[in-house]
Amino acid sequence: MELGSEYIVKIEKISNLGTGIARIDGCVVFVENVCPEDEVKIKITKVKKSFAQAEVAEVITASPRRVKPFCPMLKACGACQLQMIDYDYQLEIKRQIVEDSIRKIGGLDVEIPLPVPSPEIKNYRHKIQFPISQTKVSKRLLAGYYKPQSHEIVNIKYCPVQPEICDRIIDFIRENASKFEISGYDEKTHTGDLRHIVIRVSKYSGKILVALVVNSGNTNSRFKSFASEIYNEFDEITGVCLNFNTKNTNVILGRKTECVVGADYVEEKLLDKVFKIGADTFFQINPASAENIFAYVRNYIKDNYNSPLVMDAYAGISTFGICLADVSDKVVTIEENPQSCQKAEESLVMNKVNNVEIHSGDAAEFFKKEKRKFDVSIIDPPRKGCTQESLDEVLRLTKDEIVYVSCNPATLARDLKYLCEKGCCVKSIQPFDMFCHTYHIENVAIIEV
User: Fold this and answer.
1) Angstrom distances, CA of residue 409 to CA of 79, 100, 431
2) What is d(CA 234, CA 210) in angstroms, rounded to the nearest whole number?
3) Is 166 tagged catalytic?
């Protein structure tokens, strides 16, 4: 197999990274923008010892599962890898991704049901993070997502998976930044002003919070004036913040955020509770699908426990804690981001909840010091999952069950394997489609200790 050579292949399945899998003389070939059962002519773009990568030169016979992509930027933009596959079959593909991870990485034989579908599959993404750069000659700002396997920005004017108002706000920023002598960021030279645009849209109220991530340690008159210009242009915008990030890193947000005009939050509603969400606080990008997850966990605890003591680790703005308050004796939440804890405290007051105990700090440190035993422990860690030390502590503190919420099937499988080696039993795993048209999938695992 040589670089540039062409072959006709049939796509067997979709990998856990959203690429199609085909085989040539026993060698695995990963192919982008394909559907299982497609017969395609491919061109080899990369050859490694154990695999190759290819692009589609021609679709010879389309799979019955193939549909027309609704976004014209599919091939250029790396965000929605499964868009050419009909939505029902996307759910089956994601079920297979979870099942493969649980069996191959976790070594567990657990039946995986179809994911609970997202109530919305377009305009569902209510948090947007666009990297910013600029052209070398004209100095025109570019804003969008990265091309697949690159840091080259695709300049996106229209994105059908986010609310339309986001397109207009981003275009206004792109077209007017130069009036305030604000340049785009160059990650190679670590120069330029504007690194990212982060937008949080409330599905509940329609209000919008905008954060400009700037390559600076503090504000200045240019940034403040531009923030006011953005705020005054759109009635839907409730506030504009500046986030300061001078580190030479891929991490989007810096540690310091300043609201320069308007409010520093938007309100979102889940179940019957309202939450304050800041520019630098975590909240699920798909509120409608998130509500399904919170209802699932709440109903499970309501049906199986009578006023339990619950621990909620990696709690963010204590969303689980507040949603579970009326079916629990007490919920103890732990979150290391102080801004999230502040918004959680404000949400407690707003919802008149008085049985949620909020702790600000590192979860691992809290585990070591805590003496209480919890009936149920909820853990919702980042994509990297939990350390073995943290899992040991959660086990020590839990009497009955752990509810593990995960956005990464691979690290979930790894952690479930470890818990089972410690004597736990996985009762169920339920996927939820939070990230439509991508290979990402959220899961809720119920684990008996």
Assistant:
1) 19, 9, 10
2) 11
3) no
Give the pTM: 0.94
Per residue in 285-315, pLDDT tens?
Answer: 999 999 999 999 999 999 999 999 999 999 9
pLDDT in tens, 62-108: 999 999 999 988 888 878 999 999 999 999 999 999 999 999 999 99
Domain ranges of the chain: 6-66, 93-119+286-448, 127-270
DSSP letters of 190-244? TB-SEEEEEEEE-TTT--EEEEEEESSSS--HHHHHHHHHHHHH-TTEEEEEEEE
Given 166, 407, 424, 436, which residue is catalytic?
Answer: 407
> Which amino acid is it at 184?
G
Domain 6-66 falls under CATH 2.40.50.140: yes
Element (H or E) spanning 111, and its range? none
From the list 127, 103, 143, the residue with the least C-alpha distance to 198 is 127
Distances (CA, A) of 170 to 134, 175, 199, 239, 303: 14, 9, 9, 15, 45
175 in Cβ contact with 182 (< 8 Å): no
